[in-house]
């Protein structure tokens, strides 16, 4: 059966796809950060470091986009959903539902990661602190608030530009998830030392709720900065890409 003959997914199917896709993203990147980055067992050969976390982020998005992009568009990120709506590529009426689904998927993933730690008595009060995004004490290299805000807003803007570009009517079909995943990997390598690289309010909230007082107190930045960056990119994109009105799907 051709794609054109396939039934259009309903809102329930789309929201379920967003929950599962966001779950995969958060489970992949935060699981890597918690269990594999900084691993101290044996001779340290399992320590994947910043590069491993960046690759986990990019690969998780590639997997989710190919699997669920044809159903929901493969957003998995409230900033992306808002940015696409501002750019005229997504219906505003579904924005809140998508964001709630993404939050559910992210929190479910971080909760199960916590359960895995707790089941083997490896959970500590600071287990999720190192995976949380933020400035000063939460920044891996001690960057301040302004630097973290700029890097989160700027990287999210670049991310949305890429999404809008590779899903435009002029783009080659089928390669969008790869371009988006590779972009996230590069952006994460830039931003991890600065902010711990979120670009995604759902991912930030999912870790902040278990990250302690500093993470909760700073999560506002990891919500506001990506959304600001996405809105700026979306506004500029109207002068670069195809006209609004086409619903963006990350997987063609």
TrEMBL record:
Subcellular location(s) per record: Membrane
Pfam families (alphabetical): MIP
GO CC, one annotated term: membrane
InterPro entries per record: Aquaporin-like (IPR023271), Aquaporin_transptr (IPR034294), MIP (IPR000425), MIP_CS (IPR022357)
Main localization category: membrane
An MF annotation (GO) of this entry: channel activity
Keywords (A to Z) from UniProt: Membrane, Transmembrane, Transmembrane helix, Transport
Lineage: Bacteria, Bacillati, Actinomycetota, Actinomycetes, Micrococcales
Membrane-spanning segments: 20-41, 48-69, 75-92, 99-119, 143-166, 178-199, 219-241
Lineage top rank: taxon: Bacteria
Organism: Agromyces atrinae
Family of this protein: Belongs to the MIP/aquaporin (TC 1.A.8) family.
Membrane topology: Multi-pass membrane protein
Protein name: Aquaporin Z
């Amino acid at each position: 059966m051709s794609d054109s003959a396939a039934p259009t997914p309903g809102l329930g199917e789309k929201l379920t796809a967003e929950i599962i896709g966001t779950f995969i993203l958060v489970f992949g990147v935060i699981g890597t950060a918690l269990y594999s980055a900084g691993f101290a067992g044996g001779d340290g050969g399992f320590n994947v470091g910043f590069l491993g976390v960046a690759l986990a982020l990019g690969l998780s998005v590639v997997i989710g986009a190919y699997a669920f992009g044809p159903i929901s568009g493969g957003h998995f990120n409230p900033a992306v959903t808002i940015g696409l709506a501002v750019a005229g590529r997504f219906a505003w009426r579904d924005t809140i539902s998508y964001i709630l689904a993404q939050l559910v998927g992210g929190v479910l993933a971080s909760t199960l990661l916590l359960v895995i730690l707790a089941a083997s008595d490896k959970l500590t009060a600071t287990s999720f602190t190192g995976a949380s995004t933020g400035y000063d004490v939460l920044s891996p290299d001690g960057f301040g608030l302004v630097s973290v805000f700029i890097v989160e807003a700027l990287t999210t803007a670049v991310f949305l530009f890429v999404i809008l570009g590779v899903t435009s009517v002029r783009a080659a079909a089928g390669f969008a998830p790869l371009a988006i995943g590779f972009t996230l990997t590069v952006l994460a390598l830039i931003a991890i030392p600065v902010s711990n690289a979120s670009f995604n309010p759902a991912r930030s909230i999912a870790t902040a709720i278990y990250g302690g007082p500093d993470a909760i107190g700073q999560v506002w930045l990891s919500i506001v900065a990506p959304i600001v960056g996405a809105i700026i990119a979306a506004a500029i994109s109207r002068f670069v890409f195809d006209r609004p009105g086409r619903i963006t799907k990350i997987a063609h």
